[in-house]
Design brief:
Two copies of one chain form a homodimer.
Chain A lengths: L1 E8 L4 E6 L5 E7 L4 H4 L1 H15 L4 E9 L5 H22 L8 E5 H10 L5 E5 L3 E6 L5 E5 L11 H17 L7 H9 L7 H5 L6 H5 L2 H9 L3 H25 L3 E5 L6 H13 L6 E3 L5 H8 L11
Parallel strand pairs in A: 1-4, 4-5, 6-9, 9-10
Antiparallel strand pairs in A: 1-2, 2-3, 6-7, 7-8
Chain lengths: 313, 313
């Protein structure tokens, strides 16, 4: 039997699957994070390679797809590809698998997200968790990416953006240079702070991750549910931000289907209305799809796609 | 003769002055940065102590005022006070100066900025360079601070905020999820990048400082001067942000004078109009003052003020 291996690696974990020829999941494994900007190249590579090693059994390997957070620039790609190539050759010597004869796709994790929507390299996907990025295929088959500029200047509508804006509102409410908001008390209580000003110590610790800021999203949602106008506005703005990303993508890909992938799906009810307002004037017939596959299965399916970057041995 | 010593320490340099009893500057020295969050506690303390040592000559010391960036929380203050105390005692043994008998004031650098306006512990100051914070004295003589929550959630209208918003606009223009702006080309050219996307590598380097982001302000100003609506809007927004900080402070201090301190003074002409619009409805008679003294002289004058924190020996 031939299998495909898929690796979906992010800032908190790496998921690995082995699929049989019918697409059925034979094995499903988990390793620690593999965003190399967060855990370093050695650790990231090791987690990926151990995942692939553990997914291998007696079957021959037809292809490997690796869909990774943190692979944004050409330099990122080359760094990671060079490291993975070396380690795959070492793993090949130990296991007898000739990785150099197997297609090994390596792309940013939004590519696995796109494949997870319908199992096809087509359409559009909006991948929004801690960050936010949209990807689609234009009528000429070319990949179009919109957003994903990172937490400091992009990622509008992602969880970090929502959490950060809640902290901005909390500070402005406390100092009274912005409108009063319940976020002042709900966030302070949620984080177990004695005083609002302690948010500075909390936020600027070197170990503070974007994911932890994004974990304030449920507090924003709960505060909005209690009728707080500012918390509601932040969620409305997130819907608009994701809507703008989507609208820009749809203009370029001219495809009227959009898969929604990532944690943002959990709060879609709160942002759907402003998202739709932003998108529907121009694209009233857009269809929102829930992905059929997991991102790691999406990654495995990437191995067969010619339009994505493969590691050259 | 008796002298006062003033230390104004920030993220790029430390300025030290010795004043005679009439307030005349006898000596003016410069040491490297002393924001301990940026250079570490050992380096920060050493730069301050060496500055004080070099400012000492034969005169007796009447007071020392230390006005430091990075002293925001009670923990920051205690850390720095404990370290300075130890080092001042060591310096005292070498120089014969009994620092424990001399008032040594230690405060955040906005306090030295307040003193620099008129040499008095009264009124209001808006200190905006890379960050932005406002400080004033209320009718009961109590210190009111507004803003200064740092670059991630505060500092509206400061140089980092202006630079970051220009990068946001640049990304949105490139991906066409926001309006087209000349900032796309002017920033790329200014930073010597071949492609707009290289801004990601530039911005997220571990060594990238807030000050470097703030150094994009002249590019924003130049782009605004060429008529770019987005660049103009960013400057208008900065004026509004500083206006909101100021308005909140004036409501609490009920004093109608404001000193403007820091790099923002260099672009005041571009933000003055929206600043005034924000403040003048409520405070039409606000008087804007240019500081009479330098921040290091302001720091020296702090030594005589009882309402500020002193190091206890």
């Amino acid at each position: 039997m031939e299998i495909k291996i898929g690796v979906d690696g992010g800032g908190s974990k790496t998921e690995i699957v082995a699929l049989d020829q019918t697409g059925r999941v034979l094995r499903n494994l988990r390793k620690p994070a593999s965003n190399y900007h967060l855990v370093g190249m050695e650790q990231a590579t090791q987690n990926i390679i151990e995942g692939i090693r553990d997914a291998l059994q007696e079957e021959s390997v037809q292809g490997i797809g690796i869909s990774l957070a943190g692979i944004d620039t050409p330099e990122d790609w080359k760094n990671m590809a060079d490291n993975l190539k070396g380690e795959l050759l070492v793993l090949g010597q130990k296991t007898g698998v000739n990785f150099q004869d197997i297609p090994v796709a390596l792309e940013n994790d939004v590519y696995g997200a796109l494949m997870s929507v319908r199992g096809e390299f087509s359409g559009n996907v909006l991948a929004a968790g801690t960050g936010a990025v949209a990807l689609g295929i234009n009528p000429e088959g070319r990949v179009i990416r919109v957003g994903g500029w990172g937490h400091l200047i992009g990622d509008q509508g992602g969880g970090y953006d929502i959490g950060r804006k809640a902290l901005v509102a909390m500070a402005a409410s406390f100092d009274e240079y912005g409108p009063k908001s319940l976020l002042e008390s709900t966030i302070t209580k949620h984080l177990g702070l004695a005083r609002v000003q302690e948010i500075i110590d909390w936020l600027y610790q070197a170990k503070r991750t974007n994911k932890e800021v994004a974990s304030l999203v449920p507090v924003v949602v709960e505060t909005a549910s209690r009728g707080d106008f500012i918390a509601r506005s932040i969620l409305v703005e997130a819907g608009v931000g994701l809507g703008l990303l989507t609208r820009a993508l749809l203009r370029k890909t001219k495809t009227l289907e959009l898969g929604i992938v990532g944690g943002i799906g959990n709060i879609w009810g709160y942002i759907e209305s402003s998202f739709n307002s932003t998108v529907s004037v121009e694209f009233p017939t857009l269809q929102i799809l829930k992905p059929i596959y997991t991102p790691s299965v999406g990654a495995a399916l990437l191995s067969t796609i010619d339009q994505v970057r493969h590691i050259e041995f």
